[in-house]
Write a structure and sequence with these properties.
alpha+beta, 4 helices, single chain, ten-stranded mixed sheet, 16% helix, four-stranded antiparallel sheet, 239 residues
């Protein structure tokens, strides 16, 4: 047994008392920063943390990247890494409905208390799926381990309520009619199309949803988007 390092003896690291957001960059330029900042501010206010710094650090980087901005009681911190998820999955991706539930009070916020999302991601990987979906205690689909779900039900675009307000998903839906409402797990076999949306992947079509004892195959239709915040990051960047 070793002593706990002094640097992690703080609520941010021991209890997850932190707020963060992860945004895509292109050639060092942040994408959708204002929307990410607004969401981050809301979480900081809810947790009683300092307001996040608005000024991002200069990034002398080329190509795609992911910038994480983290706020703790000690201030605002950043980290950056290259974004290279590999070839675009032309045929779409599979998602796994996991048995993991979100925290009822934290689900609408991106905090350091991220264990349910880590476990859902692991469950999806064990099942050979690209993404793992989480539910709430009432049996509703709420969120993904690293992306935000978007569904088509009865010919309408539906955003499952109760989870993190996804910035990439909101950018994709701008100008499109969509309904935000609770989506019961029992409705998922009726989904006609689905996508997962996030800074790390853009907007990706789902080809298969797998649950316990059931599955549904879907047409994997890549959306016709050119915005750098929405495309698969392996694609050539466009204005």
């Amino acid at each position: 047994m070793r002593p706990l390092p002094p640097g992690v003896q703080a609520p941010a690291w021991l209890l997850g008392e932190s707020a963060f957001t992860t945004l895509r960059t292109w050639d060092g330029a942040p994408l959708l920063w204002e929307a990410h900042l607004a969401r981050l501010r809301g979480t900081c206010a809810w947790l009683g943390l300092p307001d996040p710094d608005e000024a991002l650090p200069p990034l002398d980087r080329t190509g795609w990247g992911l910038l994480r901005v983290t706020v703790t009681a000690e201030g605002t911190f950043h980290s950056w890494r290259p974004l290279a998820p590999g070839p675009r999955p032309a045929g779409g991706v599979a998602v796994q409905l996991t048995g993991i539930q979100v925290h009822p009070q934290l689900a609408a916020h991106k905090t350091g208390s991220s264990l349910p999302y880590l476990l859902a991601g692991r469950a999806a990987a064990a099942a050979g799926a690209f993404e793992g979906w989480l539910t709430d205690g009432a049996g509703h689909l709420v969120d993904g381990s690293r992306t935000a779900p978007l569904l088509e039900l009865d010919g309408r675009l539906v955003v499952p309520s109760g989870g993190l307000p996804g910035v990439t998903r909101a950018a994709f839906l701008a100008g499109r009619a969509a309904e935000t409402r609770p989506v019961g797990v029992a409705e998922l076999p009726r989904v006609s199309r689905a996508w997962v949306c996030g800074s790390g992947v853009g907007v990706v079509p789902v080809r298969r949803i797998e649950g316990e004892g059931w599955s549904v195959d879907l047409p994997a239709e890549w959306p016709a988007v050119t915005d750098r915040a929405l495309v698969w990051p392996g694609e050539a960047a466009r204005p």
